[in-house]
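User: Hey, quick favor. My workstation is busy. Could you predict this chain's structure for me?
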Amino acid sequence: MSRNPFTFSCDNKRYHTLNYYNKARFGQKIHKAVIDCGLTCPNIDGSKGTGGCIFCDGGSGYFTHSDADITAQLTLEKERICRKFGDSARFIAYFQANTNTYAPADTLRQYYEAALTFPNVCGISIGTRGDCLSDEVMSILIELNEITDLTVELGMQTCHDQTIKLINRCCTHSEFLEGFYKLKSAGIRTCLHIINGLPGENEEMMLQTAHELARLAPEAVKIQMLHVIKGTELEKWYNRGTLRLLDRDEYINIVVKQLELLPPQTVIERITGDGDKRKLIAPDWTKDKIAVLGGIDKRLVELDTWQGKLYK
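Assistant: No problem, here it is.
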């Protein structure tokens, strides 16, 4: 039997936390400064579809100020972060909202360079899709990767094409893989995002997605529960009573089983959602993030298990 490799981690967790990774990489706690460039997506603007994913409300964090330029947004974010953690706080410039490689290359370069030269920024994280990594975009990302700590966050959500079609993703799993392998070949740190509780998926399907993550072995993963957000297509499904959501215990048990399958070196950047409570319709239990995190920790201890225990 393998032994728990996280026994002596700084977080006392049984999985590889982002905080542990950042302290080892940068020597201190690192924060996220969230940026909204006002970009769109190919399944919103009509190039591949309209309406966006059924759960999406634009992908923007509730700290963002999309009416301001990059420097102004980062100035506000720096004030927010330093007010709480002091002037020496460092942060990642996180391009979060919608698809942040879906614009002309020259425009993207200006956005990224503005973030890179901002005080206290120690790296860049770019959220995008696997089908929005053109050769021109990849050239920019490769340049960035040579001069800063770069992470590209790809929305995988699920490995099941029937679910991808149902949620109006307009990016097949094979298209996602093509983008992922471009990043992998270029040596760019990649974080893959999955969502548990998607319509029509059972536990077996969610574990199959975890098996696919294990096969790909990305540098990082984000795991999240499906949220019903006000104003989305998913809210209509929920109001019609056609959507079954996981309860907290179900979610905790599935996450624990997924962690067992993942490589121990993969950083878990998120293990539960942290959305805008003002717009959250359901599930209500996700509002208590501490209880969810504590429940995962408790279940891992009860089962004497950990991330990577079943990884092959």
